[in-house]
Design brief:
alpha/beta; 3 strands; 3-stranded parallel beta sheet; 46% helix; globular
Length: 104
């Protein structure tokens, strides 16, 4: 899969249902330097995408917004490097710490 993420301008995860607990493919796309567009039903949207220049969150029921979001430009080499730096912060140790803090 990494080759597909690397040649893509953007990765989209338009989940509608309640079953998308995280969306690990978003982590994979980011690790390859790919911009992402996700629905607000994707579990990682708030943690990995919200407020980031390389990502966009679209309400699941607003399918008409997806085409415009995908046309918002392609990535440059420096964008890809910044994206990879961002996802490097999301390692198993950070996940474990966040989970422990949530369960307290």
């Amino acid at each position: 899969m990494p080759i597909w993420y690397r040649v893509a301008d953007v990765f989209c995860l338009p989940s509608r249902g309640p079953g998308e607990t995280w969306g690990l493919a978003v982590n994979e796309a980011l690790a390859c330097g790919c911009r992402v567009i996700v629905s607000d039903r994707v579990g990682c949207a708030e943690d990995l995408v919200e407020g980031q220049p390389f990502g966009r969150i679209i309400p699941a029921q607003k399918s008409s917004l997806w085409a415009d979001a995908m046309r918002d430009g392609s990535r440059s080499q420096s964008d890809g490097e910044a994206i990879v730096q961002h996802i490097r912060n999301w390692d198993p140790e950070r996940f474990s710490t966040a989970l422990k803090n949530t369960l307290k």
